[in-house]
Automatic annotation (TrEMBL):
<feature type="transmembrane region" description="Helical">
    <location>
        <begin position="87"/>
        <end position="108"/>
    </location>
</feature>
<feature type="transmembrane region" description="Helical">
    <location>
        <begin position="147"/>
        <end position="165"/>
    </location>
</feature>
<feature type="transmembrane region" description="Helical">
    <location>
        <begin position="114"/>
        <end position="135"/>
    </location>
</feature>
<feature type="domain" description="Glycine transporter">
    <location>
        <begin position="4"/>
        <end position="77"/>
    </location>
</feature>
<dbReference type="Pfam" id="PF03458">
    <property type="entry name" value="Gly_transporter"/>
</dbReference>
<feature type="domain" description="Glycine transporter">
    <location>
        <begin position="90"/>
        <end position="162"/>
    </location>
</feature>
<feature type="transmembrane region" description="Helical">
    <location>
        <begin position="63"/>
        <end position="80"/>
    </location>
</feature>
<feature type="transmembrane region" description="Helical">
    <location>
        <begin position="28"/>
        <end position="51"/>
    </location>
</feature>
<keyword id="KW-0472">Membrane</keyword>
<comment type="similarity">
    <text>Belongs to the UPF0126 family.</text>
</comment>
<dbReference type="GO" id="GO:0005886">
    <property type="term" value="C:plasma membrane"/>
</dbReference>
<dbReference type="InterPro" id="IPR005115">
    <property type="entry name" value="Gly_transporter"/>
</dbReference>
<protein>
    <submittedName>
        <fullName>Uncharacterized membrane protein YeiH</fullName>
    </submittedName>
</protein>
<keyword id="KW-1003">Cell membrane</keyword>
<feature type="transmembrane region" description="Helical">
    <location>
        <begin position="171"/>
        <end position="190"/>
    </location>
</feature>
<keyword id="KW-0812">Transmembrane</keyword>
<keyword id="KW-1133">Transmembrane helix</keyword>
Length: 204
């Protein structure tokens, strides 16, 4: 089930990434690259940091085909996607939760400490979006006021907590997904925000 949700998530992420590329007037190659970076970048950054190989898209090159096809499809149906914005916000939230749980699982498999497992989940969930925004010359969503990284941290914490108290992996995955998804969707619905640090004075 988690693998099916992963495929859905990378497809949705690739499609929304294509729109970001389109807003920057990128060509078809640029659209595909932004889609790959967004959908697969989080896991790639995680694996590079932890020296965990092979990359998922090297082991499963079909992921590159799926995400590129989704991005090109999005470019052709961009006007339709605009009308489905809310659906893709929900799919993005699903992707955040799924990527976070997978990131935690990978870190556990290589026997990393709990804090690093939590960090691995957050990186996997958020890094792809950060790379997309940087390449598209935008302030990353992670660094703005929306509850995004926080939702990834909560998802990872629930997953680790349930497993720590001898819960099954299925229970840990299910509860983490429910809590993380609920937090992210509620934050979208009610416009919950993280506190901002605002500083305007010059030092020179």
């Amino acid at each position: 089930m988690l693998h099916i949700l992963y495929i859905i998530a990378i497809t949705a992420e690739a499609m929304t990434a294509a729109l970001s590329a389109g807003r920057r007037d990128m060509d078809w190659v640029g659209v595909c690259i932004i889609a790959w970076v967004t959908a697969l970048g989080g896991g790639t950054v995680r694996n590079v940091l932890f020296g965990h190989y092979p990359m998922s898209w090297v082991e499963h090159p079909e992921y590159l085909i799926i995400t590129a096809a989704a991005a090109l499809l999005a470019a052709f149906i961009a006007s339709v996607m605009t009308k489905l914005k809310k659906l893709f916000l929900y799919l993005d939230a699903l992707g955040l939760v799924v990527f976070t749980i997978i990131g935690c699982q990978v870190a556990q498999q290589i026997h990393l400490p709990y804090l690093i497992v939590l960090f691995s989940g957050m990186i996997t969930g958020c890094a792809g979006g950060v790379l997309r925004d940087v390449l598209c010359n935008e302030i990353p969503l992670l660094f703005r006021k929306e509850i995004y990284a926080s939702a990834a941290i909560v998802t990872g914490a629930v997953y680790i907590g349930v497993e720590h108290f001898q819960g099954s992996e299925m229970l840990a995955t299910g509860l983490a997904a429910i809590v993380g998804l609920a937090l992210r969707l509620l934050s979208i619905k009610y416009e919950w925000q993280m506190p901002k640090f605002v500083y305007r004075d010059e030092w020179h």
